[in-house]
Amino acid sequence: MKKKQYISKIVMKWLLFCVLAAFAVSSTISYFSNTQLAKQSTKHLLTNSIEDALDELQEKDEKSVKNTLDNLCTIVEGKEFWGNISPARLNELCGLRNIQEIHIIDSTGCVIYSSVPNIINYDMNSSDQSKDFMVLLEEGGPQYYYQEVRQRGIDNVNFRYAGRRLAAHKGFLQIGFEEDYYYSKVVNGLLEGSTHHRRIGDSGSIYIFDMQGNIVSSPISFMGSTIDQTGLKLSEIFAQKALSIFTADVKDEPSYCMYVCYKDRYNIIATQPIKEATLTRDTAFGISSTIVFIIFLLLFCLIYWLMRKLVVNNIERVNKSLSIISDGQLEEVIDVRDSVEFDELSTDINMTVDKLKEFIHQAETRLDADLALAKAIQMAALPNVFPAFPDRSEFNLYACTEPAKEVGGDFYDFYFVGEDKVAICIADVSGKGIPAAMFMMRGKSMLKNSASTGLSIDEVFNRVNSNLATNNQTSTFITCWMAIINIKTGEMQYVNGGHNAPLLRHSDGIYEYIEDPMPGLPLAVIEDFPYQIHTTTLMPGDTLYLYTDGVTEAENVDKTQYGEERLRNTLNHLPVKDIIDPTITCKAILKSVHDFAKDAEQSDDITMLSFKYLG
Description:
With 615 residues, the protein is of the alpha+beta class. Helix content is 43%, strand content 21%. Strands 1, 2, 3, 4, 5 and 6 form a six-stranded antiparallel β-sheet that branches. A five-stranded antiparallel β-sheet has the order 8-7-11-10-9. A five-stranded antiparallel β-sheet has the order 12-21-20-17-18.
């Protein structure tokens, strides 16, 4: 005889295997993906940082040379100077402007004045190097021309030249720097301190150093030192390919680095700590979520197949026989015995049919008792020990609910969501009976769980609303008002999800409704509804009063409702000692509602919460 197995054991084995496999796969893929994304993002960031630094240096270089050209042109074109130009006067200008050569070229390209006498009458068209500057004489050509260091045509010495078209004369002015002079006097000056305040991310840096490793520019703490003192090794840096990412210890911290050579005399290296570069990014969340979704979809398909094979098919056979029994054919016998559970189920149902009439009678007599028990279970889920937080002196609160005869959907809640933040809420579920109570328990649990994760209160509502609205085939909804209060500062952030506006009394005033021109929709109505957060500040002595519509819609025998205006007036006419004590306030309002309704039957749950901020 074939040995029968428990379905729970079969499903447990397969589910455990699938979950472990999915966890291993998703963890491996997520770790690898996040690492690669972080590295690519860091490479992009380091590349941009180096390019920005190079662009800034180039801009500073050109700006410095341009300013020198502009100043010299202004001087040279002056009437007094132009009429008395000599090599000596031009050399004097060279010394004042920290340059080495000044040449003035006429419209034919001939050097007519120069700080270097033997260059006078030199034809700029005689070499490729000097000929490039003839573009300044072209009609519609540029006003400035900058040339990098290269051999000059007259003697093959490495020089860096720049030129500017003259405004008052046909020709242009040219200045020049010998290579070593240019780098030591001009470039070195531009580089010094150029990256003092540059940051890559929060703690990354850019270092500029010469070929011997002497730091020219860096965070201030490393100025005057060598690159080796940062933890980077000169030999390791030079072994790297330009603009390729590598890892090294910088300031005793593992970092991503990128290196490039500048003008063949200087080196630029950008660094960012690995722990900063690998922080969770939005893209990582999207990738991880997609992977987890795919894995669990596969798990769902597998579990569904198992449940269909092992459970659903047998349940359908049982249901078919139950349908026949429901039609009154009590002679039908259920014979589904493929597993231990269904064997026992068939036996139990067959025994149940034999006593069906007796059980129906007993069920009718137990219905009221069951509803009472369900209501007791529901009420037990609400916090009802007061004072709720006896060790906290910053506030005091009290809440109570008085259910109607049916199991309903009112609830209140309060709890800490941080060391100094307390959440309070009150809500009302549409409908009555067991379905409303179950929806109430689900909504209450979701609100608390979401708020406890540290989400802002609008994000809490967005998440809970989305979850409740999904597959909400009963169209049940929850009106809810919730606030998170910083009990140190009194700052209160709140969201209204279609609930009755609460009342607020300042310590030196009266109760007034908290006006909300655009309250949000109740939870579970529209899946993607965006809830808006509101902020106000409570002062010591301020009191909040929250309630459900069971208070304001309570009716007397004449079908007149208690109403919002009566509620506010009742609160404001309470004795001062009652107003300052949340417990007395709630009990006083409850008594007022009962006195108003008198002999009328209570049609809805009455729920309220009073919160007093003490500061």
